[in-house]
Amino acid sequence: MAARDLFHNAVRNALTKEQWLVTDDPLIIQLGGVDLRIDLGAEKLIAAEREGEKIAVEIKSFVGPSAIADFHVALGQFLNYRLALEIQESDRILHLAVPEETYLTFFMLPFVQLAIQRYQLKLIVYEVTTEEIVLWIS
Amino acid sequence: MAARDLFHNAVRNALTKEQWLVTDDPLIIQLGGVDLRIDLGAEKLIAAEREGEKIAVEIKSFVGPSAIADFHVALGQFLNYRLALEIQESDRILHLAVPEETYLTFFMLPFVQLAIQRYQLKLIVYEVTTEEIVLWIS
Question: In chain A, what are the domains?
Answer without folding.
Answer: 3-137 (3.40.1350.10)
